[in-house]
Amino acid sequence: MQVNIHPSWENVLSAEFEKPYFDKLIHFVKTEYAQTRCYPKGNHIFAAFDRCPFDNVKVVIIGQDPYHGANQANGLCFSVNDGIAFPPSLLNIFKEIETDLGIPFPKSGNLERWADQGVLLLNATLTVRESMAGSHQNQGWETFTDAVIQKVSDEKKDVVFLLWGGFAKKKGAKIDRNRHFVLETGHPSPLSANRGLWFGNKHFSKANAFLQQKGKPPINW
Questions:
Q1: What amino acid positions are annotated as catalytic residues?
Q2: Which catalytic residues are annotated (predicted)?
Q3: DSSP labels for 19-67?
Q4: Which of 42, 148, 187, 193 could pair with 198 in a Cys bridge, judged by C-beta atoms 3.0 to 4.6 Å apart?
Q5: Which pLDDT belongs to residue 3?
């Protein structure tokens, strides 16, 4: 199965691309994109991997589903295209960064700038139908992204995993915590944040402190 993904990930995940579930998954995705409007654009489905090669991964943030509104999703979890209003979760992420690090709100919610510094912005499901949250779940994406997390855990060392909310925590259950730095908190969505489960987590300063301790450059959040 030939998948258009960054060569560094091709090497790491090649066995996954040969498995029957992945063949079925790609067939499902191609059919969906041919028959209905789906996000992100086809050439952005693997954007998280293309913007952040395997060798560069320093931080992993796990999301659930791409945004399902027009022009929002760009293949990176929590990120939106330039010029798009910040969705509520992203707004709360920027509020926490401002409080934690004193960094003012950015002009754009496009997080490619994080990916370029080694932040893997991984959604559990990489595609979605327009206006139908969760519509591409349980088709094989979760198996694939579990394999991605496992590979990062097994083959790299001293990666920071930021697990926000119950879904991400469950997804990150198999991360080797002796090899990596795992931080957990509530989800940045208003539902969770307004219940006091998000603000004040200081994940951004903690992640940078760990990276610097390991001799790696911090992330410019």
A1: 65
A2: 65 (proton acceptor)
A3: SHHHHHHHHHHHHHHHHS-EES-GGGTTHHHHHS-GGG--EEEEESS--
A4: 193
A5: 77
